[in-house]
## 1
Amino acid sequence: MTAGLSATIANQILDSLFSAAAFTAPAASYIQLHTGDPGAAGTASVSSYTTRTAVTWAAAAGGSKSISAPVTVTASWSGTNNEVIRYVSFWSAVTGGTFVASDQLAAPVTMSTGAPLTLSSLSAPITPIAA
């Protein structure tokens, strides 16, 4: 399984922390839905609904960052009936952009055509954390 930080972002963070290299954080954050593991590039198993949805984040605590409000994907689309969403990927832009990370949902969600999908919680942990 390749869910987690993208290698590109992880390397940029490490270079910034330990080599004083400049790191520019993404200006925005978007999620994309996936039926399976998004892979190391975040592009595998993309849902038939390909539009990314903006998310906002609360302050980090305990080595994890959580969304500050539920995310609702509200588009009406065809082709998704009975599609099972298992993962999300995080991106820096609504199209294109940089793949930041991916995560597996706590429980799979079965889609119904035209029904909104609400994700009440998402988090982006960095582990392990020294105790």
Note: The two ends are 26 Å apart (CA to CA).
## 2
Amino acid sequence: MSPPLPAVDGRFRQPTDVTWDPQGNIYISDGYINSRVAKLDKNGDWIKSWGQRGKGPGEFNLVHTIAADAQGNIYVGDRTNRRIQVFDGEGTFKREIKIDVPFDPDASPRSATSPTSPTTCRPAAPLHPARHGRFASRPDRTRCSTARIRIPAASTS
């Protein structure tokens, strides 16, 4: 597979999320192909972007979520690199929060249960056809409740 074309200002390829800072600036995580964060002003005019594919500070693999706090810091979730990077509003790297929690390979992503978690399921209530159209009749749907969810403890090493 050849590398993707370079990112172009003002153009997005599979963006994943959006947030606003206290001044109304818009930040878009342009993550699946461009591996960057785009900043636009409150009118939607392009200001800048930062980031490229990689694992270092200010680099991303899969920018999947973005948020801003009241001080204007921008939190960028990089799913594949398993971390959140924090930037100021101009894209200057401030710090990294590692999300290096081991996962249970036996866990079911649909119900967040593991083989040791007792689960009770019942058929889902029918949906109203006027509001849900073709999704109203889904006899295969069930609703499950889990008595406990096992989350492995993070290692201290």
Note: The chain has one helix and twelve strands.
